[in-house]
């Protein structure tokens, strides 16, 4: 009996292989259970602040001061959004922000990708020193005052071009796109050259279509940065109202609501007899929702490319 239990053969090997999945079947179940619970908690922690902001934006300002708002407004109202859109300048500022975001994103993507392709070519003699110069700009900055005087000397003060020209090329985006181009097989470029294609045609017909994932990721980063930017409008175009951006107008609205009265409740000037009071907290919540909607609308269409683009450099040929 002892020899039978100790001897091994094809039958015993099959028996052991059949027992192993059963013996380890509990471990995947425990891992999946804890992983699911952790992800649910993470989703709740991530989404709750934004959901609470939406609730506050739809709640009466005076009632918001009491606190205790969670997932549903106690006193539903639209006065917070009416206060945000009460100024007629908000619509023109919205158009300026849209134009700035679209133009800046397209120019940054096209020019940065073209430069990244040039610096990725091993036959280009000056690719290393030029890359070093761009990398240095990521670590060293002249500062706010020299930057302002530079824009002034270039006659960009109170000009729409001040939103576009300084952001045409990004050193960080350049490194990311160049790294992605390195993963494209060199045989594709050589085949295009054999067919008689020049550098620009190779860039336009071969490189650019194959870079869609990383370009979508970079485009999202550039668009969010351009859409949320307000400080450059404050520095360079604050004296010209027709060039004001949406974020700058919302910032001015928030500042005025906080400084209008020592009392935290500030009247929005709508229906003085039955006006619903708004507070800086409720105005801030409404501003956050208004500023976030365009990005939330665009993101689902770019999510597929965004997820792929985040894996740049993780898989090598």
Compose a concise summary of this entry.
One of its GO terms (cellular component) is plasma membrane. By secondary structure, this protein is an all-alpha fold.
Task: Kindly describe this structure.
This protein has 317 residues and is mainly α. The chain has 2 domains: 2-81; 87-309, MetI-like (MetI-like fold, Orthogonal Bundle), CATH 1.10.3720.10. It is 68% helix and 0% strand. The chain has 15 helices and no strands. The chain has helices spanning 2-6, 10-23, 26-57, 61-64, 79-84, 89-120, 127-139, 144-153, 171-182, 186-194, 199-210, 212-228, 231-236, 246-259, 280-309. Helix 12 runs antiparallel to helix 15. The radius of gyration is 28 Å and the shape is flat. Residues 1-8, 11-17, 261-276 and 313-317 have low confidence and may be disordered. It is a multi-pass membrane protein. Residues 1-15 have a biased composition (Polar residues). Belongs to the binding-protein-dependent transport system permease family. This is Sugar ABC transporter permease. Residues 1-22 are annotated as: Disordered.
